[in-house]
Amino acid sequence: MDTTAEPGTGGEPEAGGEPGTGGKPEAFIALDRVEKVFDVRRRKGLLRRERHQVRAVDSLSFTVARGEMVGYIGPNGAGKSTTIKMLTGILTPSGGRLRVAGIDPSRERTRLAHRIGVVFGQRTTLWWDLPLIDSYKLMHRMYRIPDGRYRENLGRLVELLDLGELLEVPVRQLSLGQRMRGDIAAALLHDPEVLYLDEPTIGLDVVSKTRVREFLRQVNAERSTTVLLTTHDLQDIEQVCSRVMVIDHGRLVYDGGLAGLHEVGESERTLVVDLERECPPVEVPAPARVVRVDGPRQWVAFPASESAAGLVARIAERCPLVDLSVREPDIEAVIAKMYAERAGRTPTQSS
Ligand SMILES: Nc1ncnc2c1ncn2[C@@H]1O[C@H](COP(=O)(O)OP(=O)(O)OP(=O)(O)O)[C@@H](O)[C@H]1O
């Protein structure tokens, strides 16, 4: 498949990590203090209506390099979909500067459409009553994909996503997982350089989720497709992304590796010890503490950033150990704690 970037024509510097003038890879996606404010009218009483402004995205700045796979997460109403809609050109920012591959999405939406692919887990871009293959044929024409490239891409996507048996089936008869695979293939037929995925594994069973995640890793490895993934399923992030951005009340509150989230969330690991006999809760130095006792088994929580060795030695001094294990912090719990701690701090609405 052809992954070559089209030369920029809009007077903007061509972005995307190609060796440029300075030798430093430029950002493929770049947001600089981007804002999105919605004007909303709310009914108040029988006749009165009150005007509100909802600041969905608030001075948001980040960059994504070509080929990065980034998770974009946050609680409900945080501003994720609004960001994706601005990145595709569906919505126009109220302020700030936004570029994708050097293109201003809201001003050159059609030109950008040839370079991006979008998958919405809750909606389909396929024609509901037509067999899957007919949707692909329509996209072949819509995107003016050269015949050879279309055939090659289709053959490859059908093989990778195991769509062979489904091509003649009307989309409405496909299961959710089959439809999702069909949608992902549709988004990639025209060799987009960036793929936005909004909840791509929502409602899928474990096998289908694994398949979608494996496929995304493969596409990224083979074609350096930049992936921006919005999800509430943190396993999507753990298994697909090397970087995660957390947004809350329209603002970026974390940008880094998953491991770093543990530090921000002050997460804890748990040392599980099987003692030779039932003992009172073992004495351990704070902030470590025994959180559960069940017969000779005890659970000791301690900061994830610290080693368990000292604790093990201390416990063994007091009571002979039969077995032990260390449980890693649960990323879901770290994120939940982070969302909860931030909840209610920043107002999203202003009159
Ligand atoms: N068209 C609109 N008009 C008015 N307000 C809107 C509009 N679209 C989004 N909002 C508001 O903007 C805020 C951000 O919404 P957005 O859909 O971007 O959140 P999200 O992070 O995608 O949430 P979720 O995880 O629930 O999908 C919310 O307060 C939402 O009510």
TrEMBL record:
<protein>
    <submittedName>
        <fullName>ATP-binding cassette domain-containing protein</fullName>
    </submittedName>
</protein>
<feature type="domain" description="ABC transporter">
    <location>
        <begin position="41"/>
        <end position="274"/>
    </location>
</feature>
<dbReference type="InterPro" id="IPR027417">
    <property type="entry name" value="P-loop_NTPase"/>
</dbReference>
<keyword id="KW-0046">Antibiotic resistance</keyword>
<dbReference type="Pfam" id="PF00005">
    <property type="entry name" value="ABC_tran"/>
</dbReference>
<feature type="region of interest" description="Disordered">
    <location>
        <begin position="1"/>
        <end position="25"/>
    </location>
</feature>
<dbReference type="GO" id="GO:0005524">
    <property type="term" value="F:ATP binding"/>
</dbReference>
<keyword id="KW-0813">Transport</keyword>
<keyword id="KW-0547">Nucleotide-binding</keyword>
<dbReference type="InterPro" id="IPR050763">
    <property type="entry name" value="ABC_transporter_ATP-binding"/>
</dbReference>
<feature type="compositionally biased region" description="Gly residues">
    <location>
        <begin position="8"/>
        <end position="23"/>
    </location>
</feature>
<dbReference type="InterPro" id="IPR003439">
    <property type="entry name" value="ABC_transporter-like_ATP-bd"/>
</dbReference>
<dbReference type="InterPro" id="IPR003593">
    <property type="entry name" value="AAA+_ATPase"/>
</dbReference>
<keyword id="KW-0067">ATP-binding</keyword>
